[in-house]
Structure formats: C-alpha cells, structure tokens
Amino acid sequence: MTHARPLEHAYGAIRTSVIVLFVSLLTSAPAAGQPPRLILWYAAPAGNWEREALPIGNGRLGCMIFGGVAKESIQFNEDSLWVGDEKDTGAYQAFGDLHVEMSHQAGQDYRRQLDIGKAIHTTTYTSGGVKYRREYFASHPAGVLVFRFTADRKAAHAGTVSLTDAHKAKITAEGNRITASGSLAEHTYRKTKGRQYEIALDYEAQVLVLHEGGTVTARDGKIAFENVDSLTLLLAADTDYLNRRDKGWRGEHPHQRLGRQLAHAASKPYTTLRDEHVHDYQALLNRLSLDVGQTPQPTSALPTNERLKAYKGGGADPDLEELLFQYARYLMISSSRPGSLPANLQGLWNRSNQPPWRCDYHTDVNVQMNYWFVDHANLPECFEPYAEWLHSIRGVRTERTKEAFKARGWTMRAENGAFGGSTWKWVKPTAAWCAQNLWDHYAFTQDKAYLRTRAYPIMKELCEFWEDVLKALPDGTLVSPDGYSPEHGPSGVDGVSHDQQLVWDLFTNTIDASKALGVDKDYADKIALLRERLLGPKVGRWGQLQEWMEDLDKPQDKHRHLSHLIAVHPGRQISPLTTPKLAEAAKVSMNARGDGSTGWSRAWKICIWARLHDGDRTYKILHEMLQSQIADNLYDLHPPFQIDGNFGYAAGICEMLAQSHMGDIHLLPALPSAWKSGSVKGLVARGAYELSIQWADGKLAKCRITSRKGGKTRLRYRQMTRTLTLQPGESLELDPSLK
Ligand code: FUC
Fold this sequence. Notes:
By secondary structure, the chain is of the alpha+beta class. It has 16 helices and 34 strands.
C-alpha cells in the first residue's frame, strides 16, 4: 500500500480522478521533458548532517545519507513520530539509524550523487580492483526505503547490517530481519511543565536483508553477510498515529502493516521496484521544466560543492539556480505526499529529539511559506497533507480558542504540533494565514470538492472568530485588538497591519469561496460589510507602508519579518496594478529593510520584489541567497537548516515568471536582465491554467496557455492585455503581442 495510515478523505475519489486527468493532459501535451542537469554530486562522503548528507524521502518516510564506504550511515525519519498532545506542541523526533559496515575500505574514484531527475542516490567507487555501486531510493508506491549494493565481481561483499533507535526501542535480529519496536510512553524526559504528555505513540522499524550469493546470518542483534554478490535492504517504519481526534490520534500498531509492506516490496524484482518508483516520481517532477541559461564548461562539470564555491566567488551558473529551484520541488515531493503529515521546519528530516524550534509547524510565516509554491509549481497533490492536518486539528483548536478568547471559530499560537497542541505566543491571525494557503490551493486547482469539504468550512469558522474578536474604534473602524507584529512586537497593540491584512484577505477569500460554491450568500454579504470597515493599509511619515496603526516604523530597522507586507505577497490587497501609491510605500519599506537576512526572509524578499515587478532586485537577492546561505547539499541554512528557505526560493522564481493573484495572468512580471533568454514549461496559474513561456533578449518570445477546466481569463504582458475564453483541455499559442 502506498501509505499505511488510514485517512479520512471525503473528497478522495474525486481528487484522484482529477489528478489522473491532469497527468493524462500533461502527458499528451508537448512533453515538458525531464529537466536536464539535475544532479548533485560530490567526490567524498558526507561528514556533516545538515550541510553535506543528502536527503531522500517518499513523503512520509525519509533518510539522510552519508555515503561512507567502510561505514555507511543512513539516518532515517518517519513524519508522524511526534511527542506532544493537544495541550502542548511537543517535538518531532528522530527515528533511528541504519548502519552498514563493509569489510573493504575506501579505494579510488569515489563519487556520491543525488539525481533529482529520478530521485535516486548512488555511490560508486573502486576498492581492491572491484567496482562497487550503491543505489538508494525512497519509494512512494512501495512505502519503503530501498538500498541496493552491487559490484562487478561475485562474492565481493562482507560485513554487517544493524539498526539503532533514537529512543529505547527493543532491537532484535532474526533470520534476515531486524526489528526495532518501541513506545514513546517510556520517554519521561519529554515532560513539559511537570506533566507527562497524554499521547504516547507506538512505533516500529523493520529492515529486511535480501541477497544474491553468499550467506546472511542473524547474530548479536545484527545481520552478518559474507561472500555476497549483491545485497538489497528494505526499510519500513511507521507509528500508530492516526489523524483522527475522535480516535485519540491512534490507530493500529504498525507491526503487521510493516510486515506486509516489506513482503510486498520483497516479492518484486529490484528493477521493478526501481521503475515503479521512478515512474511515480517523474509523474510529478516532469510536469515543470525551467531553463534560465546555460552554464559554461568547466563549471558545470564540477562537483556541486565546488560549483557553489565558484558561484560564491562570482562565477555565473544559471544551471545551479535552476537546480536549486528543482531541488525545492524534489524536497516537496519527498516530504509531502497524500497520506503524510505536512512538511515541517525541516521537511521530514531530523536527527534530534530536541530539534531547533521543535521541528514543528511554525505559523508565523514558516509552514505557510512551505506551501506557497506547490500549486504554482505544478505539484497540487503535495498540498493535501497540509489541508488534512488543518482539518484534523479543528476540534482541538476550537476548544482552546474558546477558552482563551470566549470566541467562536478558532486560531492557533505560533508553534504547532501534530495533535493540534499549540504553544508560545497567540498570534491571532496565524490560522487566517494558513487559510490563505487553503484558498490558493482552490484558486489554482478549481477543485470544488476540496473547497467544499476542506477549505471553505475552515475559512468560515475563522471568519466567525473574527466576527467575535474585531473591535470597533469610536468612528466605527474595525481593528484586530491586542495584536503583535510577528516577531517584531510590541505586544498588546490594536490594528497591527499584519492582522488587518490577513483579516481582509480571509474575508475576501471567503466571499469568493462562497460565490464559487454558490452557498451562504447572506453570510458573504455580512462579511463584505465588515471588510469595508476594516482599518486599511496606511502610509507613514517617511513614505513607508506602516507596520502598525501608529506610525512607529524606523527607517534603520532591519528586522527579518516582513509582516506588514503580506498585502503585497502572499496577499492581494496591494499591487502596482491596482494600488500604485501603496505599492510605492511598500518599496520604501522594503528598501529600508535591506536585502540581506536569514534564509526564509531573503526568500520572502524575492517574492515581494517580484510582486513589485522589480526583476533585477529579485535576482540580486536570489544571487546573494545562493552565495551566502546555501550549504553544499543545497539545504538552505537559516541557520540552522530550515526548509522554508528552499521552498520560498522556488516560490520567488514562480512569482518572477508568472503571477495570477490579481485576477489576470501576468507573464514575466519580474524577469531579471541576468536571465536573458530562457523558458519555463508547466507553470500553473490561478483558474487552473498551465503555461509554457519562452523569452529571448529579455522579451516574451511565445506563450502557450492550456486551460484545465475551461473558462475566461485575461493575459497580461507589459502594457498589453488579451482576454481569452478556452474550453477544458484547450490550448492556445500566442506571440509576443499576445496574438
Ligand atoms: C520564526 C522565525 C525564526 C525561525 C523560526 C522557526 O520564529 O522568526 O527566524 O524561522 O520561526
């Protein structure tokens, strides 16, 4: 089975058929083709987890690979291994390590590489005259991690396989299987404020050792192998987590499920397992290709760490810029697939039981940023775990919100765990910010079943919260009370721009959603009246967009959060096209904040400058981001590693190439002069349109637009516009004058 955790999918059947239709549309369209040059490679094993080891994942289960010859370490994770409960965020946990010790030592010609065109990690080297090859992947269809060891000579492998657990699981080796089985209940060290968490998951990992030639024997908790021609290790791991509050968040013990997954995977020839994996992965990856220029040899022939060094030294490498974009898509496909939990602060990779910021679902920008690009970059099914998780925590959040605010509806604090527990600061509009992602997923896919069963019910609940908490000033203006501009402060002030903009956004999207579904017209009218009374964006004394109701902004302030610019991105309240004066004020604020900062903050700056239509500025920040904070394994370092920077970078590039948040489809709104000629195929615009855009000498050369659902839209390029009506599946090719 693809994923063991039973999920409640009211709209599952409809969604599946939509996705099948997408895939068939795409495969029959001019092939986006596999993007070339999608390889990260290195001439030495990794030493450092967050900077050098390489990630693979199937959405739910993943690992970090070091690639040592005599001692291979594979640190693995499963995304539901959480401590915590409904009262406390808790923390995402490390799972364990798979160790493979070989009797031969490192030799010559060492190379480890991650081919993100196929999602396969390989290590090759020669030792004692024998050529060795290791091939690893994380299969979504099989639900297991696969590690294959081969050589060009028979009987060339001898050594041991063992498993260690990051908690206190009981580890046994029997026959050709190692099992680590444990319970988080034993982990009293995770007591918070003197109390034990109320939820304690059971978990298990199993490794099956398959071999051709030689012998395999279980001994002392390990599996020893001798004179083996080739070895295939299959690793399955899971917990009893279930995304159902009414079942106490726990389902079946994973033991039987893992056994079935391994038996099923083991029954297939290795090449079949591999082909099924590549096919499954490429069905998502190959929907979009990007070309922003050609890197000259010899730069393109360098190992990735050397290339990065050359880039930091000022060398041009457009292929590396593309690679980082596709890497974000790779990481998303690897950490967020139907049946998994959403991508957390590190996707799903984590080696610590006390990780930075609990490796949680952080809602004062981070989890939202993770999902900004998925639909735009043609990965709609990767969004599903986020919607399902929000759906699963509604009951918990409603109770906590009622206790804290005596209000209907719900919201969250800034730090959130798998079971709806939420800690640190109450930032009232955080949930509205997540609801913006929910709406956008509909805007891109036009999936009405999803809107009806997942997004709209939450959006309406959140509107009710704001109906209850908004405060009227003496002149009737409505403000969010007792707010805080994340993470800037000060606490306890009314009418913070971040709050006002997110409430405006929630109301606007909910009104549009009610129209799309043809429901709740009276309620939408009521919300529209409230929206009219909201305190709107203000321009301050030095021409800046005010962060607070009072003009408190300081021109020398370089704070990383850009909370008062949500109206520009990811919101749609301010745009150079509709509110040019406010857009100018946003530029003043952005210039004052400067271009540097932490990982995710730079990525957000790319998105905002793209929405302000300044291509060269976006490129400057993108370039500096690659020069300053991208590690050798291409993880973005906050520091430490935080995946929002990787995902936000991809969101920025999407915004540079096409925007659709203002009701039309704007082609190349922020094309930098550094990307003189190029193309993007398979970008998606709101309204469910797919775009292929080619440009040359900094100008649009041609564009093909395909409508997935049919409808009327307007294309925009520079000063030109053209209105189109297309049937479902219909494509149209346009020249530079949109004819
Ligand atoms: C927010 C940010 C920090 C960090 C953390 C996980 O609190 O302000 O920079 O990204 O989330």
